[in-house]
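Entry:
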Amino acid sequence: MNSLIPLGQTQLQEYVTALAWGDRTLLAASAAGEVYAIDPVVGEQLMLRPATDQSLNVLAVSSDRQWWAAAGEQGQVLIGSLAHPENLQVLHYGSHWIDQLAWHSQAPWVAFSLGRYVQIWDAAQADVIATLDFAASSVLALAWQPSGEALAVAGYGGVRVWSAADWDADPQELGFMSAAVGVAWSATGDYLAASNMDHTLFVWRWGDQYPWQMQGFPGKVRNLNWLETPDQAPQLLTSSQEGIILWQLSQNHSGWQPQVLDLHRGTVRALSIHPQGQGFVSSGDEGWLCYWQQTQPQQLLEGAEEYFSAIAWHPKGAYLAAGGTQGELWVWQST
């Protein structure tokens, strides 16, 4: 079994809201509006954006590890280059609270929410690619299909999926009565999951009109994480309140079988899958950060004064980063 050993610790001014990894650099954002780039191996850190006292809520790194983007309550989208940190694009959008943001899997395009709209920005060309009108409500979640061929957007009334080949074409509507608050594609893009305000979970096989429906959750599903390996049927890891459930597609593809993973005594705040499939990490309101392997809790990590508010694996699984509600930031090395 792998284990995690402490590598380093640092301190931000406020609540750590989001973490994302470059090739070796860890990016961290906080409720004070600051963004840091940290090299946990040598202990160096560089301020990419000073504190503004306005929270940054989302942070992501592009798939080629060349660009980063962050946004939050100040109505700005920050787009920077990891190779040239002095170059920072700041997009101004007035009073919009921007809390959804995702990079395309191949191109330097970042999609982000603007109220009822989604804008797609080309970081390399510094230009707008498209502005999509969700219309039914504010955008509550968005996710690129792993191939980059489509963008799924969620909100009241369900999920709408736009084709990247023609942004002006009408989106495919995966509608239902409730509000979709989370959305996630499987790694192959063959399945799409949506969590809903009415405490249900829908999963579509891409191309099918009707989804599987899972219900009976104690609250809304907060986390959606896909696990896929070449020799195994797709699995979906979810959390609702203090419960974690691993869903596996049955052999005859007739439905999804749940396996309850019992540990946390407070609401599960975050789940992060090891990029090589070697388990996952969960954090809960009771202050526990747990490393799971083969669906069993293997290691409890300590350090947060209250609880761990953000967690992220390095893209090769070599390191795990976690941030706390008091600005604490830790990095562990996988051995």
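The first strand starts at residue 4 and ends at 11.
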